[in-house]
Amino acid sequence: MDKKNEYIKLLDFCKTDRQRQVVNALHEEGSQRLAGISLGISKSTVSTVVERLQTVAARRGWSPDHDMTKT
């Protein structure tokens, strides 16, 4: 699975509108740096949102990095 599709899958684990905005920007822009620029936030903020969503997703059974792809 490519990164863009991994990012869009994170939408299932978003709790806030801002998280959804970040994930959508990642999907459209393709990189954390470009997503940050399009939203007017830093790359590190985008990275933090992604890391937190990946943690939530892994707790619910979805982590493609660890071959866990069924929630």
Short description:
By secondary structure, the protein is mainly alpha-helical. It contains 4 helices and 2 strands; from the N terminus they run H-H-H-H-E-E.
Please describe what this structure looks like.
63% of the residues lie in helices and 6% in strands. By secondary structure, it is mainly α. The chain has a two-stranded antiparallel ribbon. It is globular and about 35 Å long. The mean pLDDT is 89.
Number of strands: 2
Main β-sheet, in a few words? 2 strands, antiparallel
Order of strands in the sheet with most strands: 1-2
* Helical content (DSSP H or I, runs of 4+): 55-70%
Q: Radius of gyration, rounded?
A: 11 Å
Gap from first CA to last CA? 16 Å
The rough form would be described as globular
**What does the average pLDDT come to?**
89
Count of DSSP H/I helices = 4
* Low-pLDDT regions: none
| Structural class designation | mainly alpha
Written as H for each helix and E for each strand, in order along the chain, the element string is HHHHEE
Strand content: 5-15%
Keywords:
single chain, 71 residues, mainly alpha, two-stranded antiparallel sheet, 2 strands, globular
